[in-house]
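Quarterly update, task 2.4: fe (ii) ion-bound model.
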Amino acid sequence: MRRSQINAIIRDADAFLHAHQFYLPPFAYWRPVDWAAKGPEVSEIVDRELGWDITDFGSGDYAKIGLFIFTIRNSDPAPSRALAGRVYAEKVLMSDPGQVTPLHFHWRKVEDIINRGGGTLVLQAYHSTKDEALDTQTPVTVQTDGVRRTLAPGELLRLAPGESITIPNGLYHTFWGEGGRVLVGEVSLANDDNADNRFLEPVGRFPEIIEDEAPLYLLCKDYARYYKP
Ligand SMILES: [Fe+2]
């Protein structure tokens, strides 16, 4: 992805969040020059990869296969290293109409995916087989806002604003917006995008970036280049 495209996506997403009265923490708005002046007191942001995370999954077509993510809080995936009792994570995502997050599951992370406003969030779920392929035969029983329901494999589940689903580990899922941009919340166990995503088809979780202009704000994968505590 080009940095100019990422900057534009961030500006657009930030305006959408404000329109929905959803506010990001202060570190969202630290500029590269601010990062260069930070010391060890901000190491949690870096170590837990909090912040802006925009991906086209290596597709080259963000509008069709892509996801906007801002990680608000996260903990160490190794329970022994997590701060006492803090084993949770929270993200805000955005899915545009027809913008797909590819089929994947998590070995460890359990996540609730929540439609917090905007359009409809459409989701499909499938069990995984022992060899981590797609199980297209077995019905899927999920919890949706305290209600247990059983879906056919890949059956379209439409979540209106306010509705959510719990995705257990090992359950393949894919989602996209419909009828308008969706403000999506994610509340989960510790998130580890480096080691806990099993995509059905290989993807590039973090895009290669062509630096055609200066970054507006840093993506979580940019910190190492600017932050020298
Ligand atoms: Fe997921």
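Highlight for this quarter: The radius of gyration is 18 Å.
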